[in-house]
Structures are given as C-alpha cells and as structure tokens.
C-alpha cells in the first residue's frame, strides 16, 4: 500500500502499522487519523496440549511475568491499550473495564511463584527444572511482523523468569490449521 501511495496509484491508506508509518513520504501533507478498532491480541494457553500449562502456578507465573506495557510500547509504539479480557470496556453495559483477574507485571513475584513450586535452576544455566524436566514451552504465531516481534519480547520476558521458550512462526494458512486442531501450547494471535 505504501508503495502504491508513493507512486500516486492511490490517494489514501487504510491500516498502517506504527513501524511502517514512518516510511510514508511527505507525511506532513496528509491527514493521519487514528481510529480505535475493537481488536485484541493475546497469548492463548492450551492446557490440554501442555502438561506444564495445566499447572495453575505456571500460568500465574507467565501472567505476572508478561510486561504488557512494554509490548504495547515496543510493538505498537504506544498506539494500543493493555487489557485483561477479550471484552473491551466500550462493549460493557456500564463502560467499565471487563472482568477477569488483572495481573500487574511483577517479575519478582512470578519468580517466587516458580520457586515456591520447586522449579529451580540447579546448574545455573538460566532454565528452571523440576524432577529432571526443563521448564520449556513453545509460542506459535503467524508471520505478521507485529506478532513475531511480540513473540520475541514475550520469549525474552519469560526466559528472564527461568523458562526455556521456543517460537514457531507459521503462515496464515498453517496457523488456521493449527488453531482448528488446537495443536499449540501457547498461541499468540488475535483479530
């Protein structure tokens, strides 16, 4: 789209990601309007695919160890909001934030949850273990640049807690098949 705009093939643009907005030539000549869209992206945890994710303490550590504000800042250039539910406040009857637990980022608390659950790092390699099993999970996402960047940031954040995180990037067709078959541990996706 940006190339077509530069070549005068089109006169306007629809959604342009924050990263690509800076690539628009003569941006001072155009009106840039920000429209809030009811879209959300999330990390969906599949407890049926991963024995680790069936453990409530692992899920709690992942939630407390995810710095959503950093994700919005670095991926969306602060052009988004952090939420705790797929139901946005604008769609609630009383216009209040949707229910559900709110996990305020607290890396030390997340580490303590793992420590109290006997997930230790006995050899000092940065990956926690319990009963000779490593704390390893896989994030699956689509090949959207924003989702890839988000997956990389989540990987970094969660590895700081002692997780070993693998990432798998799929095409849109592949990820639709993955979702249909629920063949993922952590799915980073949205609409």
Can you characterise this structure?
With 191 residues, the chain is an alpha/beta fold. The chain contains seven helices and six strands; from the N terminus they run ααβαααβββαβαβ. It has helices spanning 2-6, 18-21, 56-64, 68-76, 107-116, 145-159, 172-180; strands at 41-45, 129-130, 133-134, 136-142, 164-170, 186-190. The strands form two sheets. The protein has a four-stranded mixed β-sheet. The protein has a two-stranded antiparallel ribbon with strand order 2-3. Helix 6 links the parallel strand 4 and strand 5. Helix 3 runs antiparallel to helix 5 and helix 4 (68-76) runs antiparallel to helix 6. It is elongated and about 65 Å long. The mean pLDDT is 86.
Radius of gyration: 19 Å
Strands of the widest sheet, in order across it, are 1-6-4-5
Uncertain residue ranges? none
Overall 3D form: elongated
Mean pLDDT: 86
Which labels suit this protein?
single chain; 191 residues; alpha/beta; two-stranded antiparallel sheet; 7 helices; 6 strands
Short description:
The chain has seven helices and six strands. The chain has 191 residues and is α/β, with parallel strands linked by helices.
